[in-house]
Design goal:
The protein has helices at residues 2-25, 44-81, 87-107, 109-129, 136-143, 150-174. The chain is mostly helical. 17% of the residues are buried.
């Protein structure tokens, strides 16, 4: 019974992680900060300026940390699927997955949610099907190449931030009545 319990617990913890992960990464508005409580000035210009500064801070300081977590999580998942691949190829695919999820979040959040959970559950299925031949050490060897690819990792992180800003600007321009700087965004 011990192996069954270990598998059940492991799969349950993984499924819960995937559930929380995909809900977060697939949401169009990933931050639910109420910036209005910091905008107490009587002067509208000051309130707008404070809101703008706080809004930009969200996406220049907090978003990079969140984006790095997404990118890292997907890179780790892909390393288990593609143990024989070069790390830079895994990074490229991980960036493509994150970018696709973020773009689809602005178009159709349901699609984004489906994309965000497809890969992690695919990894789980792959591991279950290949349990006898699956080699964790091979996947970890791939991840050890991360140190040699620091520049690429930083490049992809900056790209993710630029993509999110571009999506925000485009959504503001093309979605009438939905201003980026509206309350609660």
């Amino acid at each position: 019974m011990e192996p069954v319990i270990i598998y059940i617990l492991g799969m349950a913890v993984y499924a819960l992680f995937v559930f929380k992960f995909y809900q977060f990464v697939s949401a169009r508005d990933i931050f639910a900060f109420d910036l209005s409580k910091y905008e107490n000035s009587k002067f509208k210009v000051v309130r707008v300026f404070i809101h703008l500064v706080l809004y930009v801070a969200q996406y220049l300081f907090i978003f990079p940390i969140v984006a790095f977590f997404w990118f890292a999580a997907i890179t780790v998942m892909l390393s288990f699927l593609a143990a024989g691949q070069e790390f830079n190829e895994i990074l490229l695919v991980a960036m493509a997955v994150v970018g696709t999820i973020r773009i689809s979040a602005y178009i159709a959040e349901d699609l984004s949610r489906d994309l965000a959970k497809m890969l992690p559950f695919g990894v789980l299925a792959f591991i279950i099907i290949n349990l006898t031949t699956f080699d964790v050490s091979e996947s970890l060897d791939v991840l050890k190449q991360a140190d040699d690819n620091r520049e690429a990792i930083v490049y992809y992180l900056v790209f993710t931030i630029a993509l999110e800003f571009a999506l925000r600007v485009l959504s503001t321009v093309f979605l009438k009545g939905k201003s980026v700087f509206s309350r609660g965004s």
